[in-house]
Amino acid sequence: MSQIVQLNIRISKELAEEIEYVSQQEALRKSDVARKWLIEGLRRWKLDQAVTQYQRGEISLERAAEEAGLSLYDMMDELRRRGITLDRTTPDEVREEILSLLKRGV
Fold it and tell me: How confident is the model at residue 99 (pLDDT cuts 50, 70, 90)?
């Protein structure tokens, strides 16, 4: 079970007002809105990092998907949405990815 820790931050009045507005519109507590945005921001950051590393040739497509927390096919779709070509994978990497997927039962 994951532990819960408290994080105290200072935010601008404008941001606090926006959180208040969203919390009213979504019928959520302000802390739930902030938590949701933090989670979404971290997911986006992980995805952006994985895409950047993939573009640089530092990691394979499968590793990029894993780092981003996406399935291989979702990662491929994301790269296509961003206009990034998928032909960077070598035949050896394809074999490795297939073997890895088979081991994981995907």
Answer: confident
Look at residue 79 and tell me if it is in a domain.
Answer: yes
Mention every residue, 6+ apart, whose C-beta is less than 8 A from residue 13: none
What is the extent of the structural domain holding 47?
13-104
Residue 98, in any domain of the structure: yes
Q: CA-CA distance, 15 to 37, in Å (whole number)? A: 12
17 by Cβ neighbours in 10 Å (0-12 / 13-18 / 19+) ranks as: exposed
Cα–Cα distance for residue pair 73/94, rounded to 1 Å: 14
Check residue 59 and report its DSSP letter.
S
**Each residue's pLDDT tens digit, 60-72:** 899 999 999 999 9
> Is pTM, for the whole model, over 0.90?
no
Q: How far apart are CA 90 and CA 6, in angstroms?
A: 45
